[in-house]
Amino acid sequence: MGPKQHQEQIDKIIFSIIAIMLYWIALQDFVGAFLYRVGMPSIMLRMLILSKEIVVVFLFIISLATMYARKHFDVSHIVGVAFISFVVIFSIYGNAPINSKLSSIRIYSLPVMLSCIGYSCINTFTTYSKYIKHVVMVSLIVAIFGLIEYIFLPVSFWTEIVPIFSFNQVVKYGNEDISESLEYFGNFYGDYGTGYMSLRRLISLFGSPLTTGYFIFFSFIIYFVLVVDADESRKYGLSQNNKYILLFLLIGCMIFTFTRGVLLPVIGLLVYHYGMKHKSILTFGTIIIIPAIWSIIDIDIIFQNLFQDASATGHLIELLQGINAFIDKPLGGGLGTAGAWAIRFNEDAIGTESSILSLGIQLGIPGIIIFFTFWWYLVKKRFIEILGLNYKYRQQQYRLLVYSTLGYLFTAIISEQLFTFTSVAAYWLYLGAELRENKSNNI
Predict the structure, then answer these.
(1) 140-160 as b/e, with b when 16 or more CB fall inside 10 Å?
(2) Residue 407: exposed, middle, or buried by beta-carbon count in 10 A (0-12, 13-18, 19+)?
(3) Higher-scoring residue by pLDDT: 232, 103
(4) Does pLDDT of 299 surpass 50?
């Protein structure tokens, strides 16, 4: 076996690890909860959960070494490594607990690491197309199981057979008091503006409607852009058979999670897409007409029903608190002082309900600038070409990048999911792989 064949074998093994990691991300909470029920020690379960992070660090080191050896760096990598360095150095500042600081280092390092892995390890169109297929397939698994558990499985399944909420409290968050977790399932109810009924939120394999919604969001855009809107299914190994059924399966799963941060960009992107495609004033108008009619029929619904449930009220309060905290310390208050992950280890941390605010409160305006510079360099070539209308022969690839990026940019304002491994790992891997394919002119 020559050097070229040897390298190809190594590349296949690395890509297989990435594919396995994708499926493990979807299964880890469900499997972990079942193992927790049968008595596996918490320390072993924590190592099992951390296994994906260990794999990411390992692949990141390989990626940096490969890019250095081949002299194949991109500006985004340099800015990304600078961002990680800034985060680590900034961790010296502030008095937050060490676990809280380490948690922030982890979440802010992952986008850089994952995009570098995608760039270096998903380095041919064959692996790129296979990756796209795996992302869609794992999301279909999540959606199918989600609808099954939503329609058929009783609450007792999640409290007795697969105690996923107790597992999250004890193993993930280190809270030995599980009394609240046994009641946690009840918090997934609300009338959501209907005023007529209470509906349980779909949670699927993650035990979380929020994570499920964001996990499926990226796959929905892939499937809509590459399969439903244009027949590029063969190119990516996806089937055209029953494409609308599968699309509505993904949409249905997102709807029943009642995740506002996902449903709003989905509606906006669909309205924009069909409005631009058919130049229909009516289509554009629906984004204004529907809320207007809703408000005219009963304006109180917006303020009394929609914001009466604990979820919406809590989000709004924390968002306002985050804005005030950022205004007070525009240069940052130090790592571990804000965000959902920091709160788990630091009682004094500030809730923000916004990835941007969480980043700004901890790292200040400089941290925001460096991170968004890194993100911009990952996507700028496609965006510049679109602004110049120079994308006639690769419209679907451009739409996939732009729609997904704009969607996640919107959610970064109203949610902290942009830095949540489980929710958006597939997107950051994709950005790295897409940048590589763009440079190679393969798509």
Answers:
(1) bebbebbbebbeeeeeeebbe
(2) buried
(3) 103
(4) no
